[in-house]
Amino acid sequence: MTAGKTAADAEAEEELLRRLKSFEGRPAATAARAKDPVNEPMIRHWCEAMGDTNPAYTGPGATAPPTMLQAWTMGGLSGHTSRATAHDELFALLDAAGCTSVVATDCEQEYLRPLRPGDTVTFDAVIESVSPRKTTKLGSGHFVTTRMDVHANGELAGTHRFRILKYAPVAKRPPKPEAAGPRRPRPVVNRDNQGFWDGVREHKLLIQRCTACATLRFPWLPGCNACSSPDWDTVEASGAGTVFSYVVMHHPPFPAFDPPYAVALVELAEGVRVIGNITGVPYDKVRIGLPVRLEFLRVDDALELPVFRAEAG
């Protein structure tokens, strides 16, 4: 028995699982009929949406893409029937147990024969399994797996297994109060750019240099984009540069930022280009070719960023 769970809780959980397990093997649909036969317009729309230009799906002798298997069984917004199904009963039981949210987790398909325009599609569905309670990051709940056998003109064409999680969502924690207003978004630091941010903490703007061909590169990359060598070292930027291009941000407003402000693509003296904020002049005075100098701006107690201050004159 887990900590915090009483004997009564454990008994209730066992009874719920017993009732859930009673749905295993129950049919969710029997000899249900697709609303439309397999048809070329629906195949065309599917292929256009997926960007699939395979010639097997057009012209005389066309077949439907195999992954459309479930599409022919869907009932649309109006569904297939107004009668309650085993699925409805199962989901009502889970809802009553607090598992009010649902997310699709995975599906498996097996193709036995191609579907062709004109085929009449029927299908049988069965609730294959209901898992014991599982705990996920979304919350705790039960995985429900449904198997659907799809027939074309009475011949088995494929099998579709669809698994969902019905769960009780984790209560959201209230956001921590900000001590001095909202914080800037944190940069994404990974193994490929860790050295750059280590340099920033030391007030250095480090540029990668390929040790095979001496090409400088920025932003940081795991390999040289000139010769593909994975070997590199760094050089420290002098800090001098000019505005190569820029934008003035007016919208949308975002916490921790105070628009309007200028963001520039700065060409460093070393030849690489870096994106950063322009300080020292009003946003409407930033111009292409404006000389700038690197400086480091502390935006809060845990974050310092490289920015560029406009040079006098």
The total of beta strands comes to 14
Described by strand count, sense and barrel closure, the largest sheet is: 6 strands, antiparallel
Q: Give the termini separation.
A: 75 Å
SSE succession: HEHHEEEEEHEEEEEEEE
Number of discrete helical segments: 4
Helix percentage: 10-25%
The low-confidence runs, each spanning 5 or more residues with pLDDT under 50, are none
Mean pLDDT level: 90
Radius of gyration using CA atoms only = 30 Å
Q: Predict the CATH topology of the largest domain.
A: Thiol Ester Dehydrase, Chain A
Oligomer: single chain
Which CATH C-level class of the largest domain is it?
A: Alpha Beta
- The CATH architecture name of the largest domain reads Roll
User: Structural class of the secondary elements?
Assistant: mainly beta
Residue share in β-strands? 35-45%
Shape: elongated
How many domains? The number is 2
Give the full name of the CATH homologous superfamily of the largest domain: Hotdog Thioesterase
Can you walk through the features of this model?
The structure is a single chain. By secondary structure, this protein is mostly beta strands. The chain has 2 domains: 7-71 and 83-169, Thiol Ester Dehydrase, Chain A, CATH 3.10.129; 194-310, no CATH class. It has 4 helices and 14 strands. The strands form 3 sheets. Strands 1, 2, 3, 4, 5 and 6 form a 6-stranded antiparallel beta sheet that branches. A 5-stranded mixed barrel has the order 10-11-12-14-13. A 3-stranded antiparallel beta sheet has the order 8-7-9, covered by helices on one side. The longest helix is centred in the N-terminal third of the chain and has 15 residues, at 7-21. The radius of gyration is 30 Å and the shape is elongated. The mean pLDDT is 90.
